[in-house]
Amino acid sequence: MTNSETNLPRTAVPAGITDPVASARAELKAALAAIEIKGNVPRRVEKASKRGIAKARVFADRNPAAAVAAVVGVAAVAGGLVWAVARAVAR
To answer: Which domain of life is it from (predicted)?
Structure first.
């Protein structure tokens, strides 16, 4: 394996493959990798939540008062939603 192949993403097909069978295998491997990346929803959710947590920590470090206000606001909205659902169910 050359350096150019090791720097390629898993979903890319290396250039310069002349053998049609090797080319087809490389294309299939790249397509399956792309499907696995797109289809693995739990992994994508985990990565997105880690990014969100990191952004929230940076925001809280830079502006603690606004972070507290944001938490209170989110709690108020969540409480309001629970209240609205409970009220709708009770009727």
So the answer is: Bacteria
